[in-house]
């Protein structure tokens, strides 16, 4: 089938849009930490089922100790810190602006890869960063009462969003370092390695978020959420569209088309999310916000297509 990779990539963008919208609902209903513990637990359960069906073992097999260490670190950075910031920004500034700031994630990954792996930053990559930042600036900056330029969003929400993007980018590079330690000659098929890596990231996520739940005194809220049928349904849907289906199909997309094309199409979430945000949360969407989102996605496109 022609363009199957491109179609899968667009599907992933819609999947991540659904994840963002559901996460905004879930965070406000269940709480940031509770939703994350539930999401990590369900993703871990789905992974165990997948391993059992594919390899006959409920746990990943033949995983080097070095890989496990890197994946646990990636889980702490990408899931515990990153997702905590992301879901907190959903509560404060909403999923639409949260996803707009997440276009900074691949740029953060590029900087991290340059620092840790020695991957060179091209002129096009630098231009892409500037274009992406310009697009975000158009969407979130406006004219203030006493200043020529003013931030239209709460500062803490913006800081959480930037923190989420940086942690996601850094966590991705840490995951790559960990997966480079895998031996593809083991019983595990090569396509299953990313799911194995995500398994250990989820373990780190569950441990980290559980500690945060305990020390912030939210264990009672978590126990109550388990009996919240609507809340559990949202957590289940968030898990399916996000770390399970979203991750799986994003990996499948790059098997059928160029990674740059796939990544660019999957980065369309800030544009796709505009209309659902309008319908579900009655958010006002200006032409300025729309063009800012488009310019930001173009910036990400330049980054990937310029490689």
Provide an overview of this structure.
The chain has 307 residues and is an all-alpha fold. It has one domain (4-181, 192-305). Helices cover 79% and strands 1% of the residues. The protein contains 13 helices and 2 strands. It has a two-stranded antiparallel ribbon with strand order 1-2. Strand 1 and strand 2 (150-151) form a beta hairpin. Helix 2 (32-55) packs across helix 9. The radius of gyration is 19 Å and the shape is globular. It starts with a helix and ends with a helix. The mean pLDDT is 83.
Number of helices: 13
Amino-to-carboxy terminus distance: 26 Å
List the domain count as a whole number: 1
Order of helices and strands: HHHHHEEHHHHHHHH
What is the overall shape? globular
| Strand arrangement, major sheet | 1-2
Specify the structural class: mainly alpha
The number of strands is 2
Specify the oligomeric state: single chain
The helix fraction, in percent, is over 70%
- Estimate what percentage of residues fall within beta strands: under 5%
How many strands, which pairing sense, and closed or not: the largest β-sheet? 2 strands, antiparallel
Uncertain segments: none
C-alpha-based Rg, rounded: 19 Å
pLDDT averaged residue by residue: 83
Topology of helices and strands:
Layout: H1 4-30, H2 32-55, H3 65-101, H4 105-116, H5 123-140, E1 141-142, E2 150-151, H6 155-179, H7 193-215, H8 219-226, H9 229-256, H10 259-266, H11 269-272, H12 274-281, H13 287-305
Antiparallel strand pairs: 1-2
Helix pairs in contact: 1-2, 1-3, 1-9, 1-10, 2-7, 2-9, 3-6, 3-7, 4-6, 5-13, 9-10, 10-13
């Amino acid at each position: 089938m022609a363009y199957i990779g491109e179609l899968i990539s667009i599907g992933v963008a819609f999947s991540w849009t659904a994840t963002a919208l559901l996460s905004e609902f879930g965070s406000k209903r269940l709480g940031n930490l509770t939703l994350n513990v539930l999401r990590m637990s369900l993703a871990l359960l789905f992974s165990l089922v997948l391993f059992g069906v594919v390899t006959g073992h409920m746990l990943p097999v033949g995983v080097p100790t070095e890989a496990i260490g890197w994946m646990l670190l990636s889980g702490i950075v990408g899931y515990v810190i990153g997702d905590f910031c992301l879901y907190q920004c959903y509560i404060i500034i909403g999923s639409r602006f949260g996803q707009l700031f997440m276009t900074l994630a691949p740029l953060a990954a590029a900087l991290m890869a340059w620092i840790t792996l020695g991957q060179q930053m091209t002129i096009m990559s630098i231009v892409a960063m500037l274009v992406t930042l310009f697009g975000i600036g158009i969407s979130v900056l406006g004219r203030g009462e006493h200043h020529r330029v003013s931030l239209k969003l709460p500062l803490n929400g913006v800081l959480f969003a930037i923190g989420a993007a940086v942690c996601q980018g850094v966590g991705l590079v840490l995951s790559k370092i960990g997966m480079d330690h895998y031996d593809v000659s083991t019983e595990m098929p090569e396509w299953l390695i990313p799911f194995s890596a995500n398994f250990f990231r989820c373990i780190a996520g569950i441990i980290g978020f559980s500690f945060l739940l305990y020390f912030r005194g939210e264990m009672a809220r978590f126990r109550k959420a388990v009996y919240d049928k609507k809340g559990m349904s949202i957590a289940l849907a968030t898990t399916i569209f996000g770390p399970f289906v979203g991750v799986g199909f994003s990996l499948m997309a790059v098997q059928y088309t160029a990674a740059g094309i796939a990544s660019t199409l999957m980065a369309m979430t800030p544009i796709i999310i505009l209309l659902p945000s309008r319908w579900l949360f009655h958010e006002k969407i200006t032409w300025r916000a729309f063009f800012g989102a488009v310019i930001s996605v173009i910036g990400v496109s330049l980054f990937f297509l310029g490689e």
